[in-house]
Amino acid sequence: MSNKKSIEIYFLTEEREKRLWENCIFVFDTSAILNLYYYSKLILDDISKSIFSKLESQERLWIPQRVEYEFFKNREDKITEPIQQYKDLINNDHNNDKKDKNNDKYYVQKIDQSIKHIEQIFNEEIREITVQLNALSQKIKKQDRHPYFEDPLLIRDFQNIITNFNDPVKNELEQLHDIEKLKKAFDTFQNKIAEEIKNKEKEINKNFQIFTGDKDKDPVFKIFNCFQVGEEYSFGELREIAKEGYERYDSEIPPGYKDKTAKQGIRKYGDLIIWKQIIDYANNNQKNIILINNDTKEDWWDKTPKKPKPREELIKEFYDYTNNMEIWMYNLYDFIHKAKQLLGAKIAPEVLEEVKEIEKEKQMQKDKLIVFCEGKTDVIILEFLSERILKQFQINKEIQVISAEGYPYISKIKPYCELFDIDISEIIVVVDGDSDPEGVRNRMLSQGLQDNNLIIISPSIERWLLPNIDYFRDDDATLASKMKHYIIKIKKLSRTGSLDLLLQLISLDELLKIDSSFAKYVNALRS
């Protein structure tokens, strides 16, 4: 006869969910607490009163000591993070002129680029300016979240100029005259946007000074104070966890193995320490646990079902080491949504909708693919081809191509792993094989990169641009001189802006058939 409960723990029925919510302890991971800094004061006040104060009075909120440590370590950076959101509206990085028009950023720069090309392709660029203005207007219109501009006419005034500019009854001379007016209007518009962003930066820095000087004025810290905090592990206990973690990560036993190469020392075992502290607490107090976790990596979540759920290894380990206690996981939005349903929390529908939108936006940022390459010409080639690959294979991801400005050593890649909170094994690296592709491969793999995300093109990425790949399949004596000549030609094209014309002639299907390195790159984007 089968043990019914040992099977039930892997599935969340309505009945089981209701039972868990009635008597469990709610535990928050660092990612979930820090995500609260993306919420407006209106939302924070609402959920603080309707959810957290109620659970605090019932003594049902608890966090591991490791979560407390990570919260204080990262809190100040989170408070000032919206500054970058405002800067992204403009983007002052002129080293990379080609930006994906689908990216949810860089609106002002995209408008600038369109104005520069407007005399060549008038109607198409006017449409593009209108699209980007509308997107920018939507992005900054919500008063209760960043980014938001105070002046409602700032965007509208420039939109009116564009509408007038696109008047179909105007003749060509009138339109040419209007181009100069458009350029001047854009300069004024750009200066106003820059000034608004400067004011917002001052406002955020002012809040930073207030929140760090007086934590009681920080609405997120007010929620954080609702939690009881667990005991700290001794250094000896941390060493034992690190030893166990070394073996677990080699076998990819969750949680935390995705941090194996992205972090150093004890920090790489942070998730495992949190997990061990949760198990100890549940076992000592004989309590079921609901873990609120916004870390979406596969070393916490099983993403194979339509609705992601905790990894089965975690459910089993928790059950066995806590004398048959149970655990389930929710992300922050699902927790707030369920709190309304199962705890009777009085949350306004517009608050729920706003939380859902914020969490969706954060998730889209996490679905970003980071591609590292050697130089600026490589960036242009990879951005153009990647955009076509995403469209052709219907890949719903965003790609950011980064130049290492030289050989992509692991020391250059690791800071970006920290910035985007991803493991180094998730970074795609495109590198020239030159005359020793196998040597390049061995060096990169020894530093923690995954072979399926390491794209070595021999001799270089310019190979992908040749209509006839056989050009490189000549005798070795002429290869170096041919490559030198061809690369110089490509770099000249990239400086004059003519490289786009060559890129448009490339057939992805043909390149997939005849170049294994390109096929591997496509597979890396699709996986």
Largest sheet: 5 strands, parallel
Estimated helix fraction:
55-70%
Strand order of the largest sheet: 3-2-1-4-7
The overall number of domains is: 3
**What does the overall shape look like?**
globular
Oligomeric status = single chain
Structural class: alpha/beta
Termini separation: 41 Å
Q: Can you offer a commentary on this structure?
A:
With 527 residues, this protein is α/β, with parallel strands linked by helices. It has 3 domains: 4-64 and 230-355, no CATH class; 91-202; 367-526, no CATH class. The chain contains 23 helices and 11 strands. The chain has helices spanning 4-8, 14-23, 30-35, 41-57, 65-80, 82-90, 107-116, 122-139, 153-165, 172-213, 219-224, 235-250, 270-285, 312-321, 332-342, 349-366, 376-392, 410-420, 437-445, 476-496, 499-504, 508-514, 516-526, and strands at residues 25-28, 61-63, 228-229, 289-292, 301-302, 309-310, 327-330, 368-373, 398-403, 428-432, 454-457. The strands form 3 sheets. The chain has a 5-stranded parallel β-sheet. A 4-stranded parallel β-sheet has the order 9-8-10-11, sandwiched between helices. It is globular, with a radius of gyration of 27 Å. The chain starts with a helix and ends with a helix. Mean pLDDT is 79; it is low at 93-102, 467-477 and 493-498.
List keywords for this structure.
527 residues; alpha/beta; 3 domains; 5-stranded parallel beta sheet; 4-stranded parallel beta sheet; 11 strands; 58% helix
